[in-house]
Amino acid sequence: MSVPVTGRLSADSGESAWHAAWLPTAAFRELGSRPVLVHGDGLLVDTVLDEVSRACARYGGRLWHGPPWPVDADLVLALRGAGPVPNAAAETVRLGATPAVNGTGDGALGDEGYLLTRASGVTVVLADAPAGLLYGMFHVVRLGAAAFHDDLPARRHRPALDRRMLDHWDNVALHPVSGQVERGYAGGSLFWRDGAARHEPARLRDYARLLAACGVNAICVNNVNVHDTEALLLTDRLGDVAEIAEVFRPYGIRVHLAVTFAAPVVLGGLPTADPLDERVRDWWAAATRRVYQRIPDFGGYLVKADSEGRPGPFAYGRDHADGANLLAEALAPHGGVVRWRAFVYDHHQDWRDRSTDRARAAHDHFAPLDGRFADNVIVQVKFGPIDFQPREPVSPVLAAMPATRLAVEVQATQEYTGQQRHVCYLGPWWSEVLRFRPHGAAGDTIADVAGAGGGLVAVSNVGDDPFWTGHPLAQANLYAFGRLAWDPLLDPGAILDEWIDLTWLPVTSGDPEALRRTMHAIMDDSWRTYERYTAPLGVGFMVRPGHHYGPDVDGYEYTQWGTYHFADRDGVGVDRTRATGTGFTGQYPPPWSEVYESRDRCPDELLLFFHHVPYRHVLHSGRTVIQHIYDTHFAGVEEVAAMRERWRLLAGALAPAVHDRVAERLDEQLRSAVEWRDQINTYFFRKSGVPDAHGRRIH
Ligand code: GCW
Fold it and tell me: Keywords for this entry (predicted)?
């Protein structure tokens, strides 16, 4: 590269057409106003060069990537293996400082890690692989001026989880029921529109940047419900997938494809998709070979099989290990993985039959298969036993398959948490799940399970909306997902701080401290607020069937879906005990098998998930169940009203388009919260006949 690189202004960053999210131009000011030296080569190093040169062009800094080297640099980004760094301070770090850093001894940085330190007035990022340099650069951006303070702590940074993935439930063709994006609340798909690829690389590239800047390194580009058009992505439409992969590759993101288990039949014309049939195995091997010819770094397949009507191995009398291993065999020679979802349950249940329990299903199907999956199978498990509710226990599958690589799936798209019309910052919820220890205090956390296996996955909340996520504040969920996947022990409040600093402080015209305080006040506890005004004490659902927005207490009570609350005049909740219920508590190892079994020891917030109790049952909080329901529902609405007032104070501090968008959604959130409150309170008042102790209005 010529010296010095003057950089170029982005011709296609498109910042006017869509929000810059956590990468506003101004976030690059500190980095871009300095002499920067980049040492090393590779595709992702080119990305670093591109980012730095653009920043320098804008803010007056200079970038060197070849001799003659600058005498001084404020920032050095270097690959350790690229040879001596032409900067004395950085070279000293390269030659010996790593064992001292972070007390780690071995100094290993891995494929994505980096060392960030400050030496003799120079900020130094060292990595062993280009991806590490890219992540290190984004870390410098995140720190802003603090990256250039002499008290910058020396630290080695490595992701705790190797696989940090976003699954898009995007359809290529507009689906008559699920639309362009199944459970999408942010407009259309970034990839597809009306049956074809969008071919809009500029916007995709900005998306890839956002993902890389928060640590995501894998995406699946289509819905797990693979319909006819989407099935063709594996074959006839593979070129579209390759095109997307081209855009994501420079940001260290590998592309995956959701495939239908019936592909050999629907695409290959075979009479069967039986996983043990030779022709089927050959078909998958050949199809997969063609994928890798087009996309050499292809990540692998994602499969939803024998679930909600999707085809799967059961049709041939085979189990899920047979099914997953079939695809694993095809992918193994190319280094790919199959991500096989554990979301398998009977969706034609009879509500009269109390012995069937949807919560049990994943464990019943998968735990017995532990040890039978090929090495390159990742079993992808929803974090809870039911379905992404705002409160569920952690899935017992995550404690039951030590010989299987497991991935933990969360839902950034807010299907059950307000559909991006409600503010619901999910960082604290995911953090709670990741810190949970299914074997008790001395055992591993869920983050450890994910770290040892298939990592963390979120269903994406992004679409072609100008704010990416519909609700501008829902961007925080995407950001927090990436950061928690990188380091599950991060404090969700601190992540929010990062996101506010990066996204909003550079663009506010008001008092930054006031903005930060207000955003925290609105968002910190917003998940618990949402929980307060919706289904109580972990019982879940109570949403309107189909679209899942707004309250309908009995909407699913007499349906086939297995999501019941069993409220009657005496009490409410699902008896999942071994003693008298479905036995689900027995799927947990101790101590939780005992804690959940016991009505007295079960945590309040999960009581109705595990037990059917009388309305006057007294919680650990000292309140009765019925009074808890009333109190939390009144409180939840008040909290939303307070959020709305707080947001009003920010008028003038943010661009009107952002302010109005959030304000409009807070109006709807308040309307909806009132509706929830009134329906839930009225329902339980009518069932129980117990009045509110405080005499508030119940209809
Ligand atoms: O909760 C359900 C959703 C479906 C989704 C399914 C799944 C993609 O309502 O829309 O299908 O979960 O996770 O497969």
Answer: Carbohydrate metabolism, Glycosidase, Hydrolase, Polysaccharide degradation, Xylan degradation
CATH of the domain at 417: 3.20.20.80
**Domains in the chain: how many in total?**
3
The helix (H) or strand (E) run that includes residue 170 is: strand 170-175
Task: Work out the end-to-end distance of the chain between its first and last CA atoms, rounded to an integer number of angstroms.
Answer: 72
Asked if residue 587 is part of any domain, the answer here is no
Asked if residue 168 and residue 98 are part of one domain, the reply reads no
Instruction: Let me know whether 175 and 51 are in one domain.
Output: no
| pLDDT tens-digit series, residues 128-156 | 999 999 999 999 999 999 999 999 999 99
In a domain, 421, yes or no: yes
Ligand 1 centroid, distance to 461 Cα (angstroms): 14
684 CB-near residues (< 8 Å, 6+ apart): 567, 572, 615, 626, 629, 630
- Spell out the residues 6+ positions from residue 277 whose beta carbon is closer than 8 angstroms to its own: 270
Distance 307 CA to ligand 1 centre (A): 9
pLDDT above 80 (res 693): yes
Q: Based on the domain organization, do 546 and 621 belong to the same domain?
A: yes
Domain that holds residue 63: 9-157
14: confidence class by pLDDT, cuts 50, 70, 90: very low
From the candidates 12, 308, 491, 511, which is the catalytic residue? 308
Domain boundary among 487, 503, 519: 503
Name which of 523, 517, 492 is nearest 427 in CA terms: 492
Q: Read off the DSSP letter of residue 527.
A: H
Same-domain status, 146 and 201: no
- Each residue's pLDDT tens digit, 525-563: 999 999 999 999 999 999 999 999 999 999 999 999 999
Q: In what order do the strands lie in the sheet with 122-127?
A: 62-64, 35-39, 75-79, 122-127, 114-119, 155-157
pTM comes to 0.96
Same structural domain for residues 137 and 271? no
Nearest-CA residue for ligand 1 atom 2 is 387
DSSP 8-state secondary structure symbol assigned to residue 25: G
**CA–CA separation, 5 and 13 (whole Å):** 19
How many CB atoms sit inside 10 A of residue 126's CB?
A: 30
Active site residue 415: yes
For the residues 195-218, what does the mean pLDDT come to?
Answer: 97
Decide if 596 is inside a domain.
no
Query: Which of 180, 183, 395 for mutating ligand 1's site (highest number of atoms within 8 Å of CB)?
Result: 183
- Report residue 551: phi and psi, to 5°: -85, 145
Question: Max alpha carbon distance in the chain (Å)?
Answer: 84
Concerning whether 660 is annotated as a catalytic residue, the answer is no
Mean pLDDT (whole number) for 228-251: 98
Q: Number of helices and strands (H, E) in the chain?
A: 21, 20
Does the C-beta of 387 come closer than 6 Å to ligand 1?
A: yes
| 441: Cα separation from own chain's centroid | 26
The DSSP secondary structure of 401-460, one letter per residue, reads -TTSEEEEEEE-S-TTTTTTTS----HHHHHHHHH--TT-TTS--HHHHHHHTTEEEEE-
Q: With 70 as the cut, is the pLDDT of residue 661 above it?
A: yes
Determine the residue of 169, 185, 419 to mutate for testing ligand 1's pocket, defined as the one with the most ligand atoms within 8 A of the Cβ atom: 169
In a domain, 524, yes or no: no
- Catalytic option among 170, 415, 498, 575: 415
Q: Which two tokens stand for residue 230?
A: 């989407």
Higher pLDDT, 51 or 12: 51
* 145 and 170 housed in the same domain: no
Q: What is the distance in A from the centroid of ligand 1 to the CA of 304?
A: 10
CA 554 to chain centre: 30
